[in-house]
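Chain A, query sequence.
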Amino acid sequence: MSDGSCDHEVSVQTLGEGLRELRLCESSALEAVQRSLIRHGQLEAVVAYAEDERLELIDGFKRLLAARKLGWRTLRTRVLGIDGVEAKLRVALLNARNGLTALEEGWLVRALCRAHGLSQGAIAERLGRHKSWVCRRLVLVEGLEGAVQADVRLGVLAARAAVALAALPRGNQARAAEVVARRGMTVRQAERLVADVLAQPSAQARLDQLGRWEAGTVGSSSARRPTKRLRSEAERLLADVGAMRGIGARLQARLLGTPLSALGDGAELLARDGLRGLRSVLVSLTRLIEHVVERREDGGSDA
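Chain A, predicted structure.
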């Protein structure tokens, strides 16, 4: 089925950017696109659709920004004969190769759900995803404070770090994001901060611990302390075994202490979906462990 697409030379000043709110644009990527335009010219048309007698861009936001900086007057534009819902779905389709970040996927799902009234099931079907995937993305963006999302859009905070911070209660997230940005923390360090704060026994204790991170009285020494380099395969294996035992014990305590029904409808669905996926991994791992251990106990070789 044709979408009625055709190419035109369109003024860069008239192309609308309403869908830009669904995308991130890192400065380094923008600079790379600008260099490409200077060296090679426009290799591919940007993609747009007509809405209210105005062309709205679907794909090619970095090229549009770069063209404006270079003083270009027009861009070759492929105009699709589709509506707003289809335009948003094309955002995912046109970026399938490089992939959207989890936040971008969440923004897309929220726009389809809240602005156009599509059900989560309908969105899942149109995007070729499971309904639980749609639910997770919606929970992510609607549970993440607007200030943190703004930091990501401004390039102050990495998208993956923001996803880690989403596990914190609202009210803690923006403060934690400030710590992460000010101290230039990696995603792994941000995840360590989140785990440390969530490990506290009460809301007040979490606030107090977050205050210590803000003051720099926790985290800094452990972040700078060199870790022992694991040199042999045996050391790496034993380290993984120890980590798995610790995580397994913690997960077991959580499952015994809090029924899934107490998490709330959306969170319960996510938890059940995650545990189903984990179960298959653990079953496969258990079989492999039994196979490896039994071979050694029977005198067999693991080579």
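The radius of gyration is 24 Å. Confidence is low (pLDDT under 50) at residues 221-227.
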